[in-house]
Amino acid sequence: MSVVIAGSVALDNVKTPQDEQKNLLGGSASYAALAASVFVKPVHLVGIIGHDFPPQHLEMLNSHGVDISGLERSSGASFTWTGEYHEDMNNRTTHNVAVNVLENWSVNLPAAARRAKIAVAANMHPENQMQMLDQCEAADFIAADTMDLWINIANERLHDVLKGIDLLVINDGEAKEFAGTTNLVEAGRRLRDKGPKFVIVKRGEHGSYLFGDKKEHFFSCSAYPLHSVFDPTGAGDAFAGGFLAGHLRGDPPELALERGIVAAGHAITAWGAAGLLEAWR
Length: 281
Ligand code: AMP
Known about the structure:
Layout: E1 3-6, E2 10-15, E3 20-26, H1 28-39, E4 43-49, H2 55-63, E5 66-73, E6 80-85, E7 92-98, H3 111-114, E8 118-121, H4 126-135, E9 141-145, H5 148-153, H6 155-163, E10 167-171, H7 172-179, H8 184-193, E11 198-202, E12 208-211, E13 218-221, H9 235-248, H10 253-267, H11 274-277
Parallel strand pairs: 1-4, 1-8, 2-6, 4-5, 8-9, 9-10, 10-11
Antiparallel strand pairs: 2-3, 6-7, 11-12, 12-13
The protein binds adenosine monophosphate.
């Protein structure tokens, strides 16, 4: 029983009201893979990194059971995200996205990853998500995440992705934008009608909504209660990794959702992906 997760594997430069850190391990796929690897193995991570990617990040992923043999190495510079959180940690500003090695990247799943039972097309260009979907030969459950950028510049391709997946994970603002309504429950239903059996809408510190495979199937869960949030980056990706791992273990959706919530709660308690390592202790 294995999981394949493709998406960005990044260097993050993050500023919060308290501090600032550079060259953190970031990326949608890194967070999701680390979270999933707490619950299941093997987790195949597929992405691309540049010549400047610190080896200690790779060692950390590897030592936590993440298979990094599907990580392409390029002579270019790594994908880098630079962002800042404000006093209210629910608000962040993206200062720079240096696409670099992701610019001309095509997804190429190694043989073992193609046979994975669960596939996660983490946040990346919908074209890359479609390339991944086409190579998943044995997946009986496929999830995808997305963001406002793709909703705006690759809307049509994103609709193709929705037709090929079982679960869409999306945050509340983006769900409303994508579905064209300000009512979150209506947004969840409209997105489910576009293809996926399940839609999870992440609501930050307010928890999440699960829209199930039957019209009336709806579940609301609170977030993990934390009195201090350190670095919220990657919470959504960690959430997806935890949820999918639970699903693979045969958890009903409501319990899998709770695994996602615990993973997200860990992710935000330290810089970069370091918070997730606490889940291993
Ligand atoms: P989240 O906090 O769940 O939105 O995820 C944040 C992670 O997404 C960071 O570690 C970034 O490196 C990564 N990220 C930011 N922008 C993009 C993008 N356009 N494509 C893929 N990954 C991104």
